[in-house]
Amino acid sequence: MSASAPFSVTVPLKVGLVGTGYAAKLRAETLQSESRTELIAVAGNTPERTESFAQTYQATAVLGWQNLVQRTDLDLVIICTVNSEHGAIAHTALSAGKHVIVEYPLSLNPWQAEELISLAANVNKLLHVEHIELLGGLHQALQKNLAAIGKPFYARYSTINPQKPAPHKWTYHSTQFGFPFVGALSRLHRLIDLFGKVATVSCESRFWPTESEYYTACLCTAKLRFTSGLIAEVTYGKGEVFYQASRPFEVYGENGCLIFNGDEGFLIQGEEKTPIDVGSRRGLFAKDTKMVLDYLTEGTPLYITPEVSLYTLKIADAVRRASETGKIIDIL
Hints:
alpha/beta; Rossmann fold; Dihydrodipicolinate Reductase, domain 2; six-stranded parallel sheet; 15 strands; 34% helix
């Protein structure tokens, strides 16, 4: 352990993983490649899939996350499962004396998230909320080139994901996924990281329901007015009603604009159109995992705090209320 490390930890750290999906797979691969960690146990939603996943990564399959987080042989719990379960798992894991990594959102309820941050401080354990969008090539390119356009006054960010047919999975379940801008918190967090505090929000939403609790498509458009005066429009849509995928991100400033579409970017100033190199989105879960381990063992600063994630979660919840009431919500 480094003298500057924030916690007293022994390597290899014994890790428990909740989830068997895409993010869990990438976490498990990173844990396997790391000399500082040992993946001990995995808990998933179905016994068959959990057993298969655990065998792949030489871990023990555990029935239910409740049994996993109570294990005395774990130092760290990584939560990569249904959004609606994040808060309860994090609370139980922290209370059991474990460090915690959780994919955003920390909770669907901002008040529970606030309580979890206090709990982590009280038990002296790490609570890290993943926000890999900040580590990706698009965000790094935005940060690097933002000053070139002068004071920004307008931003537009849209992600449209066609799915035909819509998958029968938790990300299309309103209760399990949460309100779209809460469940997909990174859509707002990227803007808040760039432009700071928010003054007001409004939102319009539409869902294409089925006879079950799952929907086949959703479309949400939010407007955020920042305290700087900048206005941002954010659209999130997915499902069967869409026919073309797109993810443009545009920022307009007094001296030019930044235009990104997918992995292509340009700085436009007058007649000049300068290409911007947009780095890869690959390897970000591995990078996040390694940064947490650097923090735990060496004290290297992390790229985000749970308090910053909580602020965005509160804004996202205000967007939800704006959608439900049709009102403009003031952020205090």
